[in-house]
Amino acid sequence: MTTPTFERPMPVKTPTTAPFWDALSEHRVRIQYSPSLQSYVFYPRVRAPRTLADDLEWREISGMGTLYSFTVARRPVGPHFADAVPQLLAIVEWDEGPRFSTELVNVEPAEIRIGMRVKPVFCDYPDHDVTMLRYAPA
C-alpha cells in the first residue's frame, strides 16, 4: 500500500497582501507603517488598527529580529507536512515592532533560545511563484 502524498498549501496573494509577497520575491521585507499610530503594522490590512485611519504606507524593514516564542512540532501539523518534522514553528519580533509567525531553519532544536537574534532566510518556491520568509540564527 502506498502512502498518499499531499502538496503543501501555499499562500494566496491578494490586492492587500501583494506588496508583502512581491517584496519577498525580491528577497526584501516590506510591511505597512501607519503615521497616525507612528508604528509599523503587520499583518497587511486596508486600515490602521485602533485608529482605522486610511494612512498605511509600505516601507522596507531590515527583517532582523528576536525570537519571541517557538515550539518544536514533532508530529506533523497536517498530512501536507508529514515529511517536514520536526517543524520549528516560531514567532519573531521584528526590530521595527510587529511579530511574525514563521519557521526556523538552519538550527538544531537544542540550540534555540527565546531572545536569540535571528535573520531572514528567503525560501523561493518557483513552481508556486511564491517566496516564504523563514528565520535562522543571526
Automatic annotation (TrEMBL):
Residues spanning the signal sequence: none
Matching SUPFAM superfamilies: Nucleic acid-binding proteins
Domain annotation ChsH2 C-terminal OB-fold: ranges: 58-122
InterPro entries in alphabetical order: ChsH2_C, NA-bd_OB-fold, Thioester_dehydratase-like
Any single Pfam family the record assigns to this protein: OB_ChsH2_C
Protein name: Acyl dehydratase
Protein species of origin: Mycolicibacterium duvalii
